[in-house]
Design goal:
The protein is an alpha+beta fold. It has three helices and three strands; from the N terminus they run ααβββα.
Amino acid sequence: MLTYAYFMRIIQMVMKYSELKKILKKNGCNFDRDGGNHEIWYSPHTQRLFAVGRHSGKEVPTGTASSIFKQAGIKK
């Protein structure tokens, strides 16, 4: 699991959706299924499903990345 300090450094960096998905996988989250315009992922930390955009080549807005990590249970 990410430490809070490391998490904050990641959030402040420019990150692409493909990099965000790698971080989710490293922290135990799994791809569940395809949704309409998003991928649906499962977090064993929160035991919930959450959506991640299908924009592999694009940069993730800081607020979006923060929200996804929070839903995944990676951010405290």
